[in-house]
Write a structure and sequence with these properties.
- By secondary structure, the protein is an alpha/beta fold.
- It has 2 domains: about 180 residues, Glycogen Phosphorylase B (Rossmann fold), CATH 3.40.50; about 160 residues, Rossmann fold (3-Layer(aba) Sandwich).
- Helices cover about 40% and strands about 15% of the residues.
- The chain contains 13 helices and 12 strands.
- A 6-stranded parallel β-sheet has the order 2-1-3-4-5-6, with helices on both faces. A 6-stranded parallel β-sheet has the order 9-8-7-10-11-12, sandwiched between helices.
Length: about 375
């Protein structure tokens, strides 16, 4: 009789799949790809954003209930199923508080857990969080067997942040699914520019619009710009109107997955000059689809991008550099196509199959040596 691998129970602690953002995107792409012996379950600690800058603000009271229910479920699972591996996804500020509390419980119950960091800025805590509370939360976070960072840049940041709370830090870049084929772009007329992500200052959306508005009229008339995502939509539309190019700029808001795929297939250039990133899923998708990307080195993107080979790197906030890059990509289609093809090759390093395989082996390693 052939005996298969021992079953492993994995509890993924993070946002609900329906929440818009990078963490839920990664979890959603990978949750059904694990081997059959890994029972992967999601326990959401929140299901709707409640920040003041959210266009559709959720109820803080309801979200507190969602978190408490998650904490009870996590605690019960930890007590009953001692071999469970917990995979805790962490961002910043409110997320640090929620996931830090979860980690305190897990460490106190001597559970096996991974902390997976996705922060886009170095503001790990709200300024008002007391030092003693910060230390306690970091104690919980630092009790993980493995701490996953998206890039070496973030690995170094967390090594400093967790200094007295020693934990093993491993770099695990975000995954991307490569389409089997990409469109032929060498013979297209015009230039379709695409921005994917939250529209606001952090991702450089307003600089993108200003750069587009500053293009020479003949170049701008050959180009179109689409900014797809939630955030400060009315401010972006008003800026495009002020710059005299509302007819060339489309801002549809948040779009579903099928529309994202359509936009990626139709575009030639992805613009994402962020001030802060963990590791942008939009950037990886643009590369996977063979787009020429104009981006920044935020979050360690320059660890895998090569300027002039598979990307054009600009400094965050440098509108002139973005404008110059767009103009060059418009007038030099051969360069544009070569950037896109090289970007797709680079994106192949982050295939989703390899990501799932690395996580599976990590789960198996932790499950084989449970804490007592």
């Amino acid at each position: 009789m052939i005996i298969g691998p021992r079953q492993i129970k994995v509890i993924c602690v993070g946002p609900a799949i329906k929440v818009r953002g990078g963490i839920s995107t990664v979890i959603g792409h990978t949750r059904n790809r694990f081997p059959a012996h890994i029972r992967f379950r999601i326990v959401p600690t929140f299901s709707e954003y409640t920040g003041n800058d959210e266009p559709a603000r959720g109820s803080r009271l309801i979200q507190a209930g969602v978190f408490l229910a998650a904490l009870c479920r996590i605690s019960a699972t930890a007590l009953i199923w001692r071999r469970t591996v917990f995979h805790v996804h962490l961002s910043e500020k409110g997320s640090t508080i929620r996931k830090g509390l979860v980690c305190i419980v897990l460490r106190a119950l001597r559970c096996r857990y991974i902390v997976h960091a996705h922060a886009a800025t170095d503001a790990l805590f709200h300024p008002w969080v007391p030092l003693t509370v910060r230390r306690l939360l970091l104690w919980g976070i630092g009790g993980s067997e493995c701490f996953l960072a998206l890039t070496q840049f973030w690995a170094q940041y967390y090594a400093t942040a967790l200094k007295s709370h020693a934990t093993q830090i491993v770099v695990l870049p975000n995954p991307v699914e490569l389409p089997a084929e990409i469109p032929e772009r060498s013979d297209r007329d015009g230039l379709r520019l695409l921005f994917l992500g939250r529209i606001g200052d952090r991702k450089g959306a307003f600089e993108v619009i200003r750069a587009f508005g500053a293009l020479p009229p003949d170049v701008r008339n050959r180009c179109s710009l689409t900014l797809a995502g939630d955030g400060e939509l009315e401010a972006a539309r008003a800026l495009a109107a002020t710059l005299g190019c509302p007819d060339r700029v489309s801002i549809p808001g948040w779009v579903d997955r099928s529309e994202v795929v359509r936009l990626l297939g139709e575009a030639e250039v992805l613009l994402l000059p962020s001030r802060g990133e963990g590791m942008s899923n939009a950037l990886l998708e643009g590369m996977a689809w063979g787009l020429a990307v104009v981006t920044s080195a935020a979050g360690g993107a320059d660890e895998f991008l090569h300027p002039g080979v598979d990307a054009i790197l600009v400094e965050p906030g440098d509108t002139d550099a973005i404008r110059t890059a767009i103009a060059e990509l418009d007038t030099n289609p051969a360069f544009r196509v070569s950037l896109g093809l090289a970007a797709r090759k680079t994106a192949g390093r982050f295939c989703i199959e390899g990501y799932v395989d690395r996580l599976s082996r990590l789960y198996e390693s932790l499950a084989s040596t449970p804490r007592t």
